[in-house]
Amino acid sequence: MTDQTQKQVLLELKDYSITFKTPDGDVKAVSNMNLTVRRGERIAIVGESGSGKSQTFLGIMGLLAKNGQTSGQALLEGRDVLSLKPRELDKVRGKDMAMVFQDPMTALNPSLKISRQLTEQLEIHRGFTARAASVEALDMLKRVGIPDPDRRFNLYPHELSGGMRQRIVIAMALLTKPKLLIADEPTTALDVTIQAQILDLFNDLTAEMNTALLMITHDLGVVAGLADRVAVMYAGRIVEEAPVDELFEKPAHPYTAALHAAIPRPDQDVDDLVVIPGRPPNLQHLPKGCNFSPRCPKVEDDCIDRPPQLETLAPQHCAACFHPFPRREELLTHA
């Protein structure tokens, strides 16, 4: 990595793992993850429920359940946030990195008006006076597309629609102008029209503020017009990472290809919808070899004997697979 590239690095995960202690034994939710996020970059983290996507970033934010433990490093501008004490982390969390949660009703305090929940961010993290915070918060409500913001500024969360509540949560996260914004399934509970509006909002505002965006989703279709790069997770590991166009055009890992095939298409009959056979593995009893081997259509003996490591297939494209799908150039060579 050149000095110039290193200066652009915002977040770097090194051998990052998360383990949960349970009465039945340890559960390794994330295993030896390595990921680099650059300033202003938009990365999608994709995978089925239970693949470790959300836990990865809850760990970085210091929001794991009490039985969760992190190891490795999570370097934010070279500073390991995993080693920070709670008071030190409070100064970073919300200011330098912020998170938008899937359900805005659990992210918003039902007993406080929207105005207080917005202005509090600015007063704590940016030292604004109450008056200045109100002016800034109202401006942000306009920018996230809240109609009649002056009136809605003094409403309670239950008085707003689901789409408006999600916009409020996004406004709260962006008010402090964080360097890193983590969005955890932010469009799942919204209808398709509102989903598109929210994704456009993320696109515009993160570009305007040069904020790096980590979008966590189980839907590969959501990321096509938003992400610069995609990391695909399965059973706590990254199994493929590539620029978004490359991933859609030339998926290398069978799991990525299966996710891609499972995206519903307008011209597709319901009976022709593709499903991935089987179920994700039990994280307490992972296969000896590749975690995807019990469900993989390309499984061979070596897949069962030992786990594959991420290997570079092309510039910025790597996959953890002994038998990746042939690249287009290879297909042409052997045609």
From TrEMBL:
Pfam family, one: oligo_HPY
GO biological process: peptide transport; transmembrane transport
GO molecular function terms noted in the UniProt entry: ATP binding; ATP hydrolysis activity
GO CC, alphabetical: plasma membrane
Protein's recorded name: ATP-binding cassette domain-containing protein
Location of the ABC transporter domain: 13-260
Homology family: Belongs to the ABC transporter superfamily.
Chief location bin: membrane
PROSITE patterns recorded: ABC_TRANSPORTER_1, ABC_TRANSPORTER_2
Location(s) in or outside the cell: Cell inner membrane
Record's bilayer topology term: Peripheral membrane protein
Entry keyword set: ATP-binding, Cell membrane, Membrane, Nucleotide-binding, Transport
InterPro entries, per database record: AAA+_ATPase, ABC_Ni/Peptide_Import, ABC_transporter-like_ATP-bd, ABC_transporter-like_CS, Oligopep_ABC_C, P-loop_NTPase
